[in-house]
Amino acid sequence: MSQEDWMWQMQNRITDLATLKNHITLSAEEESVFQAAQEQFSFSITPYYLSLLDPTNPTCPIRKQVLPRSSELVRAENEWEDPLAEQIHMPIKGVTHRYPDRAIWYISHICAVYCRFCTRKRKVSKPTETPNREEWREALEYFRNHTEIKEVILSGGDPLTLSDQHIDYLLGELSAIDHINHLRIHTRYPVTMPMRITDSLCGIFSKYFPLYIVTHFNHPKELTQEVKVAVTKLIQKGNVTLLNQSVLLKDVNDTVEILEELNYKLVRFGIKPYYLHQCDEVYGSSGFVVPIEDGIRLMYDIRGRMSGLTVPNYVKDLTGGGGKVLLGPNYLIEKKESSYLFKNFNGGEYEVTH
Known about the structure:
The chain is an alpha/beta fold.
């Protein structure tokens, strides 16, 4: 088994401080908070993704996404364990049915790399949170019985952690449900472990058109030659449509220049920029949050200089389970002391804390 094998990458993930220090030079802050942060949320990084990280520079944008910082140990008043209220809208273990016509199916608790701003920090890396095979059957029965569901989104953790056989089974069962219009997979493995995209996996994907895969690239440094090979394989052999959702992250991608490079490069690789998310208000995320007015200003500048194909929608998933809302200069009504007041498409108003 070689480094080009995804199972080798999984088996050789760096998960502890001592091993990490053999590969990179840690700042005093990074080392001091590592253990305390790991008590709340696991650390893991693949050798591949580690190779993208600057081993000596604490301001490296890859490094900032994966190494704990002191701000992660601070819990602000507006931060929640489950900011999107997924547990409240969970009729069956692993299934979040928050929107009428679509449901998220959480089928893996494992990620190759654990992002420090993860919305699901409360459950990712915890085996007890993953549905077992009997609970898979219960979820499939739920999807069959709820004819209003037009889309099922496989998520996690990372759903591509599952074996090819299990992925084939789940996609086959879901595709056989008449009222399901299409399927979507959310995965960060094309970013953190592109060797997961094998010929055999793409052969499975090709059987289930239309299949949409949403990747999670946040910085142009992540778009490597290895990624280009994997993405080309997904499109040409897997017959999938590729979209990308980024998170707007302070000191990672919060400039016009970085977002321009990221989104043009995504389109060149064959991936449509889909969403730019305002960082969710999950506990420990304050160090990543870009003020919404700065995000709006960025989008205003981007729309004036970039092709429409390269421009994502800037959105906020409302804390408390209110769903996604579009953020933009045309919809901001008022900035208050601790929140923004927006108007949405149907004339209703909503408030977003900052």
